[in-house]
Design goal:
By secondary structure, the chain is mainly beta. The chain has 1 helix and 9 strands, in the order H-E-E-E-E-E-E-E-E-E. The protein has one helix spanning 2-18; strands at residues 33-37, 40-46, 50-57, 60-61, 68-75, 78-87, 90-94, 104-111, 114-121. Strands 1, 2, 3, 4, 5, 6, 7, 8 and 9 form a 9-stranded antiparallel sheet that branches.
């Protein structure tokens, strides 16, 4: 019985250390809200004059070239959809926007053959 406990504790400690590597902390680099989706960091900046989505992979910015992004903002029963265009290293749309606190947002981003869906609480 003691040998089973010893083996179990050794296995748990080995597997525990194998998965305890340093993760990356999600910190918004552009003043927005950031989430991780499919190992990609997706940052949404939603202001009254601009909507922007920035993508990065472990801190390295990803190019938005050749891709597109659709952003849906939900606030209660109100639903607004926006098409963001690739601009430099981000997806962006300028205009006049109403993004109340407590809204939810869903971004569907297409990069070449990859589709990323990210959900945000604003």
């Amino acid at each position: 019985m003691k040998i089973k406990v010893l083996i179990t504790s050794l296995l748990l400690s080995v597997f525990g250390f194998a998965h305890a590597g340093p993760g990356h902390e999600l910190k918004p680099a552009h003043g927005g809200v950031i989430v991780e989706a499919k190992d990609i960091d997706v940052e949404l900046v939603a202001k009254s004059d601009i909507l922007a989505i920035y993508l990065s992979d472990h801190g390295k910015p990803l190019s938005s070239e050749g891709g597109n992004a659709k952003l849906t903002i939900l606030n209660g029963s109100d639903k607004k959809e926006y098409e963001l265009l690739p601009v430099g290293g981000r997806f962006e749309l300028k205009g006049a926007f109403s993004v109340p606190k407590g809204s939810k947002a869903i971004a569907v981003i297409r990069l070449k053959s990859k589709v990323i869906t990210a959900r945000f609480n604003l």
